[in-house]
Amino acid sequence: MAGKQGTFGIEQYRRRQRFWHVVESPYVVHLVLFAAVFFIVSPLVWELLTSLKTQEQVFQLTYLPTDPTLEPYRRALFDRGFWRAVVNSVIVAGASTAIVMVLGMPAGYVFSRFRFPFDNAVFTFVLFTRLFPPIGLVTPYYRIMTFGGLVNTRIGIVMANVYLWLPLVIYIMRNFFITIPTALDEAARVDGCTKVQAFRHIVFPVVLPGFAAGTILTFLYSWREFLFAFTVSADLTSMTIPVATFLFVGDTSIDWPAMAAAAIVALIPSVLVVLFFQRYIVVGLTGGIKG
Amino acid sequence: MATERARGDAGPHGSGVRGRLADLVNDHIRIALLGPSLLALIVVFIYPALILVWLSLQDTQGFTTELEPTANYVRMFTDPAFWSAFETTLLYSFGSLVLSVFVGLVIALALNRIVNRWVRDTYSTLILLSWAVPLSIVGVTWRWMFNGELGVVNQLLLDLGILSTGFPWLTDPTSAMAIVILADAWSRIPFATIVLLAGLQSIPQEMYDAAKVDGATSWQTFRNVTLPYLRPSFFVAGLITWMFAFRAFAIPFTTTGGGPAGATETLAVYIQRFGVQLVDYGFASAVSVVLVLVTLVVATIYVVVILEQMQEIEV
Known about the structure:
The structure holds two protein chains of two kinds. By secondary structure, chain A is mainly alpha-helical. Chain A is built from 13 helices and no strands.
């Protein structure tokens, strides 16, 4: 009896091992990844296909654009004037990124290098602002901007973006600076550099990949931002492209191809950043967590 | 002090305004580098946060604003719509959390099996795409795909003969909820994948070799080597995914607008409706305070518990 059980055990073990061999085979691995890529990419491809169709083709329910046209892009960008939203988006994301990086990088450096009274408490405060749900500040921001005359201005949106991304950048930059040995700054200072020179000429070049990661993430995040941009802006004088695209939804008869075209325009920077800076993003996202 | 100067600390190069300014920065390096950030955070965060608390104590329902510290909170806790939004938010956030972490794990395990670096990078770049998509674009895209008359999902299901008439995905409360959760998970899967993949790659190869020598099956290796090592990554991916899904605004708002009949109205959409659309900002602020407190309490408990566990397992 015992012997029989033993052989059964081995049989079972072998069968399981064979099962896992199949599960772990390259075919299954690629199959899983193909399925995942299909799930992730197909909504974007569908949006792209829609943006190349005429209104008639949308109503005829053809899968592919039989006669690809850029007409929807013209309708979205010029007839509706969304080129102004694109300009707003570039200005808002660019200004937000510049301000956040100029403020956040030195702050991250200080947290990585220097001790000062209540340093841990101040750092915890920075983390706290990051954990704080931004939706909570929408109502007060709306009030402040109403009273301060910042409603429907790009400055108002930039201000919200500084709140949203500055704590994140301080945190990410601190984690990058921590990986650089302090011996490096000290050596520079022994050689006669001031603290600022040590930072600029010695530490900054080493942390450049981290700086790039922070810049790319901030730009992308400010470009994508919807909640505050939607709350602050009222029309195309300040509206960003993610908000403008959403406004198609309010139309009585929605121009789906034009809406898809606007969505594709809003997507372009996101896709480009991912395609060219995939590594930096991975470093930035995981660097923002570890440490 | 003399040695300090000899090292060029408060350098003697301080002639002229620029030099003196450089000296000043050098002597007060912490304030000079950190001060502007802290000042900015006071203006863009502390000031609005104080206003939030102040507003939450005001009764703003009528034409006049009155200080009524408990009015909004009483009204909120007795409003069935608040509790329904709260429930929706819980379902939404946990649904998105479970989906994105599970799918993220499967993808990360598969990616980790690919040896060729170029192939792996190509896959991960494609998977990263949905993370970068602006959330309102996620919303309008899913709204378009699941459109009852012209949407591609119905079109496919009809052409394949699975459905005989189009299903109204976004006007049926149950399927609308499922779709916003799916859309939310869609945009969060890449993040979970990246975090879990980084965790997988930090597992030392020797652990796998040892398990192999001991004759462990693949499943046993996965259970006893991979999963314990991945625990910190699960905690990070889980907490961050949950926190961001709990405050989700853009995806439910742009996909369904909180409808049909409030079926997908998360707390964030509820807050926006009162605070911005109905200008009942006192009430909206009170709800915001509750949402903030729930997030912070959960995050704190979670972090404390995890830090304790981490020390035990020494990973």
